[in-house]
Amino acid sequence: DSGVTQTPKHLITATGQRVTLRCSPRSGDLSVYWYQQSLDQGLQFLIQYYNGEERAKGNILERFSAQQFPDLHSELNLSSLELGDSALYFCASSVYEQETQYFGPGTRLLVL
Amino acid sequence: DAKTTQPPSMDCAEGRAANLPCNHSTISGNEYVYWYRQIHSQGPQYIIHGLKNNETNEMASLIITEDRKSSTLILPHATLRDTAVYYCIVRVRAGNMLTFGGGTRLMVKP
After folding, report:
1. What is the spatial distance between Cα B55 and Cα B52, in angstroms, rounded to a whole number?
2. Which of B71, B70, B73 lies closest to B59 in space, CA to CA?
3. Residue A78 and residue A102: Cα distance in Å, rounded?
């Protein structure tokens, strides 16, 4: 158990819908990272927040957005969902930006 | 970040040492070698990391060659629960993202 929690564990929705994935970092961690893992793309970095501020962006689609709240939990919003958005979404956290990242158990999203 | 090369798959007998190699010939002086593993769609699990010196923790040992162009992750007594995909990642310490390659699928067999 890494101490990072993610909800929900599973999510099934339809194309065109919008969903929100939630991540609670380990106690004391200030930085949160989101990754997507699909069958054909492997694990890919999406976006990072540090103490409420966006710090780095990867291959994140414009339909996706994220934020980190004052209590340091983070949410990843996925809108206008497409079949290809079906994937595992992982959140990771670290104490500071340069430190080791610890991953949560992930949210499995299925878009039908 | 430097590119890494790992064998796509390896087998290991239960109870034996598992030695997983990683080539990172273009590594820079300020880049660390990190190892993570992923057990069947679970979240990647941090194992160990190092810069120049060999490192050991309760999970594994990391051996980095003197020229730092390759490294080996050693699981001293592999168990069936060590069956997973192992990722070798080279990362600038101040970098934000982890760049995952294909990894090595380790199968531990009874």
Report:
1. 9
2. B73
3. 23
User: Which amino acid, residue B77?
Assistant: H
Distance CA A87, CA A83 (A): 10
pLDDT in tens, A51-109: 999 999 998 999 999 999 999 999 999 999 999 999 999 999 999 877 899 999 999 99
Q: Are B100 and B86 in contact (CB under 8 A)?
A: no
Place of tokens 């997507």: A36
Chain A: which residues have CB within 8 Å of chain B?
A: 2, 4, 33, 35, 42-45, 48, 55-56, 58, 88, 90, 92, 97-98, 100-106, 108
Of B108, B92, B61, B44, the closest CA to residue A2 belongs to: B44
Spans of chain B, pLDDT less than 70 = 1-2, 93-95
